[in-house]
Amino acid sequence: MTQALELKAPLTGTVLPLEQVPDPVFAGRMMGDGLAIDPTSSTLLAPCDGVVTQIARTHHALTLTAANGAEILMHIGIDTVSLKGEGFKPLVAQGQTVTCGQALIEADFSFIAGKAPSLITVVVIANSDTQEMAERATGAVTAGQSILMRVRAKGAASAVADASATPSADTTAWAVVGHGDGVHARPAAMIQAAAKAFNARVFLRFSGQEANARSVVSLMGLGIGHGDRVEVLASGPEAGQALAAVVEALEAHSPSAHGEVEAPAVPAPAALGAGKVGGVLAAPGLAIGPVAQFAAAEPRVVELAGELGTEYNALARALATVRSAIMSQMHAALKHGDKAMQAIFDAHLALLDDPELVGAAERAIGQGKSAGVAFRDAARTQRQVLSAMNNPLLAERANDLKDLERRVLLAISGDADQKPVVPPRSILIADDLTPSDLAGMPADALAGVVLARGGATSHVAILVRARGIPALVATGAAVLQIENGLEVLLDATHGVLDITPAADSLQAARQQIDARRDTLEHMKRQALEPAHTLDGQAIEVAANIANERDAREAARCGADSVGLLRSEFLFIERESAPSRDEQQAAYQAVLDALEGRNAIMRTLDVGGDKEVPYLSLPQEDNPALGLRGIRSGFARPALLDDQLTAMLATRQASRLRILLPMVADVADLLRVKARLAELAAEMGITALPQLGVMIEVPSAALLADQLAEHADFLSIGTNDLTQYTLARDRCNPDLAAGLDPMHPALLRLIAQTAAGAAKHGRWVGVCGAMASDLEAAPVLIGLGVTELSVSPGLIPELKARVRALDLAMCRREAQSLLLLSSAAEVRARAREIWPQV
Ligand code: PEP
Ligand code: MG
C-alpha cells in the first residue's frame, strides 16, 4: 500500500464537509474531494512540502503539488474571484518550492467578509481521480499543526482507474454501444465532448474497469466493442443531463471503418513463392521503384530533471507549440481541401487535450521526472494500453499517439526533426509511419508504401488512399531487411511485394502502369478542350480555387473558368482583414492568371465552421445556423463594402462574377444588389459584374424562381445544402456517412432550383463537393445543371466523364431517381444506369 501524505491545516478554524460549502461546484466535488475550513486565522500556510504549480491571477486560490503527485487546491472564500485580487497578498511565486507550514497568501478577512458571500476556504485534491483521501479531520484545527487529512495515490498512473477507485455516483444508466467499431478515436471524442458539456463528473464502467469520460485515451482503453453494454456513472450538479448526453453518444450509430476499404487477408506466404512478401491492402495500385528504408531517429530526451517549475513550464510550452503547429497544419489542409488530413489532425488535437495523458505526465514531473521522461512514459503507457487491445482499430490509434509523443519530445528538447530524405519515386519501407511523417514528404517522393506493421484503417492508410499511392501494410518485419535502392515490384491490389521480380512480371507491370498513365495523360490533353455530351450539350467544367496559385493550376488542368473562388482564404491566418487595395491586387492576380477565362468570386463566407478570430463575431450556440455567409457581411457592412469595391475596381471586371453565400431569400439578394449599384455609381462604373446566388439553404432552393428573377446565375453549394436539408452537421465525422448529396430530398431541391432558374433563362452550376463525384455527374446534368466546379486536379477525369454521357438519357433517368427513397438506392441505381469504366 502506498504511503499516505499528511496534510496539515492551512488555516485555523472549524472543519466542514464539502457538502456544507455554499458553492455547488465544490459541494458537488466537481473540483475534487477534500474538506473546507471556516477560518479564524488569515494566513494560508502550505499543508505539506511541494511546488506552487498555480496561483490564480486574482490571488484568491493556489495549487500546491506534493512530491507524490497530489495536487492540493486551496480556494480562499467563496466567489472571491470577483474581488480581482483585492484583499489578498501572495507571499510566494508560481513555480516556487515551499516547505510545510510556509506562509503562502495573506488574506484580509475583515475586507473580504464585507464583499464575498462566505470566508469558507476549501482544500481539495484536484486530481482526485488518482488520489484518495485516507483520513479526514473533524472539528477544530490549528494552522500548521493539526492534521487536516491524509491522501494517498490510488496506484500507478494508468489510463484506466482501478475498480477500487469507483467514483461516487449520483446517477447511473446503461448504454448499448451503437458505434460499428466500438469506442475508437472518433466515438471517444464524441463521448468526451458530451461529458465536457456539463458540470458533472462522468465515468464509464466496463468489464471491471473504469474510465473518465473526459479522457479519449481512457475511453479507448476500455476496449468497448459494438453492441457491448456499458454502465455510465455521473455525479455533480448536472449529473442527469451529462448522463443522458453520454448515453446518447455511446448509443449513436457510426459505421465500421472497415467498410471504407477492402482489406484482403494476408496471402499465405507459401502460396507466394520465394522473394515475395504478403501484406494487407491499404491503397490499391501497382508500383515499381527503388526501395527507400525509412527509420526516423528517436528524439533526444533529457533524463535529468531540473526544478519542478522549470519542468512543468517546459511541458506546458511544448504542448502549446505542438498544438499551434497542428492548428497550422489543419488550416493548410483546409485550404487545400484535404479533408482526410484535416480530420486526422483534428483527432490529434483531441489526444493532445486528453486530461489523462497530460495529467499522467504532470504527475510524473511532480514525482521528480524531467518533462521529456514524464511525457514519454505517459504516452508509452497509453500506447501499450491501446496496442494490447484486441481491437485492431484501437491498436492503430497507438500510432497517432506515437506521432504526438515524437512531436512533443522534439518540442521539449528544441531539436530539429531529422528524417531520412526519400529519393523521388521510391517504394518507401518502414516499420510504421505516422501521419506527420507522410505530411512532411514531397508529393513526388513516393511511388508506393510498404509497412511492416500498421493496418488498413490507420490514419496513414487513409492518407495514402486519398493521395492515390499504392500501399501494403502488416507485411511483417522481414521487409525491413530489404536492401536500400533495390528495384522491387509492389502489387498492392493483390497484397504482394515482389523483391526479386522476374523480367516478364516487371514488363507486364510496367505495361499496366504505363497504360494507366497514358489514359490519364490523354484525359489531361483532352481537358484543354471544352466538354460536350454525346448529344452536344456544352457543360462548363470549372475550378474551385483559393488564390492565384490555384488559378494557374486550374488553367493548366483545363478549367473552362473558375466556378468558385473562396475569398475567405484571403482572410484566414492573419491578424487583421486585408485592406481594399490588398484585396484588389489578389483578385486581379487571379483574373490575370486565368488568361482570359471568367472567374466567379464569392464574397466572404465566414462564421459557422470557418473562424476568423479578428472579426470578433459573437459566440453562438448554433454557429451553423447563426451569423455566417452573407449575414456576417450584413453584420459588418464596411467589410462587405471593401470587398465589393475591390472587385469592382479590378481591370477586366467583366470577367469577374460575384457570388453571394448563404442567401436565404430575395431580400438578401436585393440588399446586396442595391449596395453594389450604389458603390459602382460612386466609382463611376456603369457596366456591373454579373451577380449570382449560392443555393445552400433549402429556402433558397424552394424560392429559386424568385431569386432567378433578380440574379444572373445560381450556383448550388451542395455541402451546405446537404447539411441543412438533412439536418446533419457537416463537421461531425460521426454523421458523415449519412451526409450524402445523392439523397432524393437533395435531388428534388436541385431539380426545383434548375426549374426556377429555367423560368427566367438563368443557368445553374454546382460548386459543392457533389460536382466532383463522378457518379453524381450524370444525375446533375440530367436535372438541368450546366456547370460543374471542382478541384483543378479532377477536371480531366470529369471532362472525360461528361463526354461519355447522353443528355436526353440523363434527363429521363434523373427523373426516375427522384422517386427513390434513399441515397443508397439512388447510388445503386445510378451505378446500373451509368457504369463507370
Ligand atoms: C457548399 O456549401 O457546397 C460550398 C461550396 O461552400 P463551402 O463548402 O465553402 O461552405
Ligand atoms: Mg457553403
Structure description:
It is a single chain. The protein is an alpha/beta fold and 837 residues long. The protein is built from 27 helices and 35 strands. α7 runs antiparallel to α8 (339-352) and α14 (503-526) packs across α25 (795-803).
Concise summary:
The protein is α/β, with parallel strands linked by helices. α3 packs antiparallel against α5. Residues 156-166 and 257-270 have low confidence and may be disordered.
Could you give the topology of this structure?
Elements: E1 5-8, E2 13-17, H1 24-27, E3 33-39, E4 43-45, E5 50-55, E6 61-65, E7 71-75, E8 88-90, E9 97-98, E10 103-107, H2 109-115, E11 121-125, E12 131-136, E13 139-141, E14 147-153, E15 171-176, H3 185-196, E16 201-206, E17 209-212, H4 216-221, E18 229-235, H5 239-251, H6 269-272, E19 276-278, E20 280-283, E21 286-293, H7 308-335, H8 339-352, H9 355-366, H10 371-387, H11 392-413, E22 426-430, H12 435-439, E23 446-451, H13 459-467, E24 471-473, E25 487-491, E26 496-498, H14 503-526, E27 531-532, E28 538-545, H15 548-557, E29 562-566, H16 580-593, E30 599-602, H17 630-635, H18 637-648, E31 656-660, H19 666-682, E32 691-695, H20 698-702, H21 704-710, E33 713-716, H22 718-726, H23 744-759, E34 763-766, H24 777-783, E35 787-790, H25 795-803, H26 807-817, H27 823-833
Parallel strand pairs: 21-22, 22-23, 23-24, 28-29, 28-35, 29-30, 30-31, 31-32, 32-33, 33-34, 34-35
Antiparallel strand pairs: 1-14, 2-3, 2-13, 3-11, 4-10, 5-6, 5-9, 6-7, 7-11, 8-10, 12-14, 15-18, 16-17, 16-18, 19-26, 20-24, 21-25, 25-26, 27-28
Helix pairs in contact: 3-5, 7-8, 7-9, 7-11, 9-10, 10-11, 14-25, 15-16, 16-18, 18-19, 21-23, 24-26
The structure holds phosphoenolpyruvate and magnesium ion (MG).
Residues 661, 696, 717, 719-720 line the site of magnesium ion.
